[in-house]
């Protein structure tokens, strides 16, 4: 930092070409200290995880015999760490092959051409920590430069060609909500009913909201509705499903949802098969321990729900607050697109 500021001060003095006294020099130093070093903006989105940013080619048109470089950044812009599996990157559109069509000449970092005519690469989770907006710390970023030779087309022909960059990565969204119940004596004396308090959602493409009814009384079963919404620009798949360039329709729009109340998992739940608009018409899931503590929720038109009942004991105090914690685990698939024109002639 000090070396940078001193260097900038000397540059300013040399540029002006005048001799400054010590007071003016100190004033310049104070201004530089106030402005600080060049700062990187913090990219954070409450509706995102890993995203593609600054997707472009280095030129709008590429001619026969030339090359064009596809440039983009993979950035963790959400509020959670990306698990160890990291991010899978797929580049596709036209046929990409060494034996015809578009050809991958060089890549930084390393990428490979698959037999299916597309390019694949991986980004380690180690280089993609989440951002911290309160501290001004940006999320991890991996830049890509992929140099392509274009397909051969007839002279005078211009072919707009779309390239797609897809990411597939594991992620999790957690919501914490507090539910207050009152004793029967407190309810009779004050007529004050229990209620839900504010929920806290971590940033990610899947959001969870907690709903409960009013008049929550201890010693009864508390109905808890967990509504799931896809707010990203892609779709989720189950964690156990492998990332592929083309995911089967039967695997799309699914997450697993784990629920605890004060750390306990003895909760009876059932999922909804109609976009979360009914009281739950799917199979009953008895939340227990291990794998059975997770229920699969299918999203319809980006929405789904899990309907749960938690049996509260009789109250030992006028009021009692329970902490509901729900964690959605999934892999998320998102795609960005850019266009370049393939011209059938040489400069």
Q: Nutshell version of this structure?
A:
With 347 residues, this protein is mostly beta strands.
Overview of the structural elements:
The protein is mostly beta strands and 347 residues long. It folds into 3 domains: 2-35; 50-170 and 334-343, Immunoglobulin-like (Sandwich); 172-331, no CATH class. Helix content is 10%, strand content 45%. The chain has helices at 2-16, 22-35, 184-190, and strands at 50-57, 61-63, 68-76, 87-92, 103-108, 112-113, 119-123, 141-149, 158-182, 196-201, 206-212, 221-230, 234-237, 254-261, 267-271, 284-287, 294-298, 303-311, 319-343. Strands 2, 4, 6, 7, 9, 10, 13, 14, 17 and 19 form a 10-stranded mixed sheet that branches. Strands 11-12-18-15-16 form a 5-stranded antiparallel sheet, with no helix packed on it. Helix 1 (2-16) packs across helix 2 (22-35). It is elongated, with a radius of gyration of 27 Å. The two termini are 46 Å apart.
Draw up the topology in text.
Layout: H1 2-16, H2 22-35, E1 50-57, E2 61-63, E3 68-76, E4 87-92, E5 103-108, E6 112-113, E7 119-123, E8 141-149, E9 158-182, H3 184-190, E10 196-201, E11 206-212, E12 221-230, E13 234-237, E14 254-261, E15 267-271, E16 284-287, E17 294-298, E18 303-311, E19 319-343
Parallel strand pairs: 2-19
Antiparallel strand pairs: 1-3, 3-8, 4-7, 4-9, 5-8, 6-7, 9-10, 9-19, 11-12, 12-18, 13-19, 14-17, 14-19, 15-16, 15-18
């Amino acid at each position: 930092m000090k070396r940078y500021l001193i260097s900038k001060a000397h540059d300013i003095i040399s540029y002006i070409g005048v001799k400054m006294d010590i007071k003016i020099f100190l004033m310049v130093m104070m201004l530089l200290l106030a402005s600080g070093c060049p700062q990187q903006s913090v990219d954070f989105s409450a509706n995102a995880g890993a995203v593609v940013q600054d997707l472009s080619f280095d030129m709008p048109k590429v001619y026969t015999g030339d090359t064009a470089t596809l440039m983009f950044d993979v950035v963790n812009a959400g509020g959670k760490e990306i698990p160890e599996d990291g991010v899978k990157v797929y580049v596709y559109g036209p046929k990409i092959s060494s034996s015809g069509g578009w050809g991958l000449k060089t890549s930084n970092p390393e990428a490979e051409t698959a037999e299916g005519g597309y390019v694949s690469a991986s980004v380690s989770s180690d280089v993609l920590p989440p951002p911290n907006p309160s501290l001004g710390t940006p999320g991890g970023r991996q830049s890509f430069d992929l140099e392509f030779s274009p397909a051969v087309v007839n002279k005078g022909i211009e072919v707009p060609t779309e390239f797609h960059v897809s990411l597939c990565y594991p992620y999790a969204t957690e919501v914490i909500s507090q539910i207050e119940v009152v004793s029967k004596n407190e309810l009779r004396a004050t007529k004050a009913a229990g209620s839900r308090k504010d929920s806290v959602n971590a940033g990610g493409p899947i959001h969870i909201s907690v709903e409960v009814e009013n008049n929550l009384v201890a010693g009864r079963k508390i109905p808890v509705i967990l509504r799931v919404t896809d707010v990203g620009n892609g779709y989720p798949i189950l964690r156990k499903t492998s990332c592929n360039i083309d995911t089967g329709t039967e695997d799309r729009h699914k997450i697993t949802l784990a629920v605890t109340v004060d750390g306990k998992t003895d909760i009876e739940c059932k999922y909804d098969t109609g976009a979360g608009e009914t009281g739950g018409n799917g199979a009953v899931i008895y939340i227990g321990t291990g794998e059975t503590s997770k229920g699969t929720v299918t999203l319809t038109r980006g929405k789904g729900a899990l309907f749960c009942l938690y049996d509260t004991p009789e109250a030992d105090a006028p009021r009692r607050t329970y902490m509901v914690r729900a964690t959605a685990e999934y892999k998320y698939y998102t795609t960005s697109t850019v266009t370049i024109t393939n011209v059938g002639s040489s400069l």
